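$ ./design --mode recover --in tokens.txt
reading tokens...
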């Protein structure tokens, strides 16, 4: 696959991705480490873009992929739920905005932070994304460092909100 990064900005140029790190003979400690990592659900219909982002995100998170909003909704509703969802907006079958609205209807998924990463940049697109429940709306191309910072912030905010809810329910 030929994809590239220009100063950390994801774009289509020329990079060779290494093969998957999955080793069927991996040790139990590697499995335990993966199980304790935060989970990111990446919803993207462009297979090359999804593989590139997953390559970078897997260094820090356990990453699941979905090719459209319908599959993203399905995967997000199954435990263990993702800690954050990074989603494109324009996708076949179900777009990211509809997926976000659907996720907000269910108690198990309503508090999962959603970050939209998309080429749809009109003010109306941004407003629709935020109104659907997105925490962030990032325009493509985006630097991987900026995306990682938004993911860390979204997970941190979600953890803080969950702790506040637990404390208030104890009173």
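writing sequence...
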């Amino acid at each position: 696959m030929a994809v590239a990064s220009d100063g950390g900005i994801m774009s289509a140029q020329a990079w060779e991705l290494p093969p998957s790190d999955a080793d069927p003979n991996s040790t139990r400690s590697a499995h335990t480490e993966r199980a304790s990592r935060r989970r990111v659900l990446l919803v993207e219909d462009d297979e090359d873009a999804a593989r590139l982002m997953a390559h970078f995100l897997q260094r820090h998170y356990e990453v699941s992929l979905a090719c459209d909003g319908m599959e993203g909704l399905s995967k997000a509703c199954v435990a263990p739920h993702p800690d954050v969802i990074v989603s494109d907006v324009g996708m076949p079958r179900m777009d990211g905005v509809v997926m976000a609205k659907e996720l907000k209807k269910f108690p198990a998924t309503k508090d999962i932070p959603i970050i939209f990463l998309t080429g749809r940049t009109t003010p109306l697109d941004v407003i629709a994304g935020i109104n659907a429940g997105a925490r962030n709306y990032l325009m493509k191309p985006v630097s991987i460092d900026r995306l990682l910072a938004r993911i860390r912030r979204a997970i941190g905010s979600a953890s803080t909100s969950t702790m506040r809810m637990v404390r208030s329910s104890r009173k």
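exit 0
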